[in-house]
Amino acid sequence: MSEQTDKPLHDWVRQSLDTYRPDYNPTDWARLQRTLRRRRWGRWGALTSVCLLLVGLISWFVVEQQTDNVKQSSTTLLLRSPKPALILDSIEAHNSDALTSSSGIPKMEKLMPTAARSSPFYSFATVKPTSVLQPVIDILSPTRKLNLLPTDINEHIPLPHLIAFSPEETAIKQQMITGDFGLDSTSYRVLDRNLRTWPDAVVVCDFTTSMYPYTTQLFAWFRKNARNPAIKGMVFFTDCDSLGQQTRPGGPAGRMFVTRERDPAKALPILLDAARNTTRNNDDAENDIEALLFAQQTFPEAKHLILLADNISTVKDIALLSKVKKPVHVVLCGTTGSDTTRAFQPDYYTIASHTQGSVHTLEDDLTPSLLSRTTTLRVGSHYYRYVAHKKQFKLTPFSHRPRHFLKLIWL
Fold it and tell me: Fewest beta carbons within 10 Å, which of 37, 230, 389, 401?
């Protein structure tokens, strides 16, 4: 039996293929390229979708972890706060207005005196755990210009101060924490220029309404000059008695607030208490002399008194000036208001002259006994020159500091 072979079949197939030639079509390659591109983009699209899904899941997990940590930290801080039930029970709802120049800072309603509670400037906000902690978070924020307050703020600031939401209180805290007191740096610059010549001084501050920035900037100066021992203490006066009622000559004495602290964290509660005491101070005239006498008695070792005075206000108790026995250096804060014919209130010049003290503005330092016809003074955007025969400053029409040329004309 012969072996079967497939060679004839293979030869026939080979001959048939040699004679077969398919028609050439130039669009076949273009179709193949499109198909390959669709397959390639499909694979990349699927890979991208998977990556985005993974990133989304990771982000969600991280956010959830951070939220849990914040909640845990909030719970821990709340548990450390004394009497948390008192916080929630003592605060009522309100809508907070924008910052105004009015004074008065709220406390917890149950802890406030009746007279202060009746003020329209006191308001309260519904407290949630995050809102109670917000002042702490703000103070500890690394974005602040200056970190003046300690980490454990409860150590120095009583709980009612942490949960009050008055615009005035917020402004005072902000100025103390950041050192940002606005464009008018009168107090800071006067101390920087003169404090070396005023050893053992006591600062007496008018702490009413718009005077807050002029007082808080003192602590910015303290921070820069922490080792300077010239300041023995500070007295804040508000022209109100212990019940928050405005003082009258011959009536109850005004309430004074005293501190020897230079640390803003420790001094802040004193400033807040003083601000709360000025809710019924409606008159322009202030009890500056009474405050000077109080400082003179409280700090008998003081050799100089520095009075931060509101230049728009007069002095109601100027009749007591003869009892002031120490030199008073008057720092004029602000302007005289709409009456630009006056550089300052005459009462403050009288105080400085009678006590052998001085008068100071943002740029100028004046000693009453050394004034001459060439003396000039800037208050706000106005310039004044001294008229010797009238013993007063006269408003000039210049927009720059005038100069006396040949003792004849001003240029």
Answer: 389
